[in-house]
């Protein structure tokens, strides 16, 4: 079994003539096809909106693609809000799902009219003091605590997570906000990350729909939307079956028809804030083997490093690797594929069976389209790679240039440290 690449070796060889490795490459066709499938899967709900989680792939060119489908954006910081506003997303299409929120971020979110999702009950007096009156529509983040189980077992442990408020706090928050003039409420919850099952959203829906129904019944409040947030995952591993968004949409519809419709709540809008599912599989980190090292193990040194893709170093996450042009060769070599950071966790793969790799081979690191570039950092003074978009017509567009030494030192622009450094900047 093989994991498909969205480009061939021939295409990459051509791209490498204009753009040396390492670089991130995104597949516009894949992103668009998936966006259409998501829209279709939830088309039964007239108010449906996907708010793309900006942190997954915060590139304006990508955000503009999603805007074409009527999607919104999910932001958690000043910069994410600012770019969304700049790109012309309508205020109601900007969700502000933050936590531990600084006052100036609330002020800015309120100023641009973003939908505010309160992470905690204490943020209500904080907002009132720091910002002022509440908008007419407010969202609240719920954390059911305990462990979260669905039919195929325990999925995660919300009781250990810092997000959201308890059920009692949520009821109290609605009560308080109603007295302060809030007219419409949204309920939000994010319980499990990277689920590779079609059951997560439907199960979460049942939890949130029941909660919304009791809020409506007990407090008489108007619930205008339920936000299922992120968590729909990607089949990073070869043995995983990718999620089927149509089946997920149908599962949510069933829960909706079972729980909300009988309560007379058939006009509640469903929102999602998927990041990983929207772009993860449609990105690859393209890197070249530049060194081979044999000590107690076999190492392949590539020209990318954890600065470009931190997930393996941070979570020991698996990213499949294809050696372009060697797809048919036997996987009869065992390598650690490493980057150049002075950190022993800078390894894209450990003890990975791969075909024999020669210096100059191009490695395609799969599924880096979400939480890839954006999670990168500048440790060791390593500079971040560019981002390229493979357009539907096969051409390639630079959508973020490579970082330079000048970028790295740009926060020293108040002094003369850069004078005379033109040669390296
Ligand atoms: C990270 C995040 C998302 C997106 O999560 P994915 O796993 O990428 O789908 C959505 N909403 C919130 C509030 C988040 O923090």
**Structure annotation, total helices:** 12
Secondary-structure-derived class: alpha/beta
* CATH fold-type name of the largest domain: TIM Barrel
Percent range for helical residues?
25-40%
Question: What is the overall pLDDT average?
Answer: 96
Terminal CA distance reads 45 Å
Give me the count of strands.
19
Total domain count: 2
The unreliable regions are: none
Radius of gyration: 23 Å
Give an overview in words.
With about 425 residues, the protein is an alpha/beta fold. The chain folds into two domains: about 250 residues, TIM Barrel; about 130 residues, Lyase, Ornithine Decarboxylase, Chain A, domain 1 (Beta Barrel), CATH 2.40.37. Helix content is about 30%, strand content about 25%. The chain contains twelve helices and 19 strands. The strands form three sheets. Strands 1, 12, 13, 14, 15, 16, 17, 18 and 19 form a nine-stranded mixed β-sheet that branches. It has an eight-stranded parallel barrel with strand order 2-3-4-5-6-9-10-11, surrounded by five helices. β12 and β13 form a beta hairpin. The protein is globular and about 70 Å long. It starts with 8 loop residues before the first helix and ends in a 17-residue tail after the last helix. It binds pyridoxal-5'-phosphate. Pyridoxal-5'-phosphate binds next to α10.
């Amino acid at each position: 079994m093989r994991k498909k690449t969205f480009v061939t070796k021939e295409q990459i060889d051509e791209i490498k003539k204009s753009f040396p490795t390492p670089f991130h490459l995104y597949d516009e066709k894949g992103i668009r096809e998936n966006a259409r499938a998501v829209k279709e899967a939830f088309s039964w709900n007239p108010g449906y909106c996907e708010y793309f989680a900006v942190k997954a792939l915060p590139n304006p060119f990508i955000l503009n693609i999603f805007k074409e489908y009527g999607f919104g954006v999910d932001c958690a910081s000043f910069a994410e809000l600012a770019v969304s506003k700049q790109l012309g997303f309508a205020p109601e299409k900007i969700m502000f799902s933050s936590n531990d929120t600084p006052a100036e971020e609330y002020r800015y979110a309120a100023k641009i009219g973003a939908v505010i999702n309160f992470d905690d009950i204490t943020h209500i007096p904080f907002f009132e003091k720091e910002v002022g009156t509440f908008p007419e529509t407010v969202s609240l983040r719920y954390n059911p605590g305990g462990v979260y189980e669905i039919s195929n077992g325990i999925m995660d442990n919300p009781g250990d997570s810092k997000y959201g408020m308890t059920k009692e706090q949520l009821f109290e928050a609605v009560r308080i906000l109603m007295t302060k003039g809030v007219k419409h409420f949204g309920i939000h919850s994010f319980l499990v990350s990277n689920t590779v099952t079609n059951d997560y959203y439907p199960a979460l829906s049942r939890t949130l729909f029941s909660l919304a129904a009791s809020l409506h019944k007990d407090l008489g409040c108007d619930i205008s939307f339920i936000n299922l947030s992120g968590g729909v995952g990607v089949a990073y591993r070869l043995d995983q079956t990718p999620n089927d968004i149509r089946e997920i949409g149908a599962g949510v519809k069933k829960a909706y028809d079972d729980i909300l419709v009988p309560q007379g709540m058939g006009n509640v809008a469903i929102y999602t804030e998927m990041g990983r599912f929207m772009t993860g599989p449609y990105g690859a980190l393209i890197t070249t083997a530049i060194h081979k090292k044999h000590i107690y193990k076999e190492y392949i040194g590539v020209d990318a490093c954890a600065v470009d893709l931190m997930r393996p170093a941070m979570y020991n996450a698996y990213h499949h690797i294809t050696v372009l042009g060697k797809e048919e060769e036997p996987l009869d070599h065992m390598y650690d594929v490493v980057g150049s950071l002075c950190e022993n966790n800078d390894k894209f793969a450990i003890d990975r069976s791969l075909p024999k790799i020669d210096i100059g081979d191009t490695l395609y690191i799969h599924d880096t389209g979400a939480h890839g570039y954006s999670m990168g950092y500048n440790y060791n003074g390593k500079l971040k790679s560019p981002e390229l978009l493979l357009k539907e017509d096969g051409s390639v567009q630079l959508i973020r240039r490579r970082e330079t030494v000048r970028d790295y030192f740009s926060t020293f622009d108040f002094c003369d440290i850069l004078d005379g450094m033109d040669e390296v900047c």
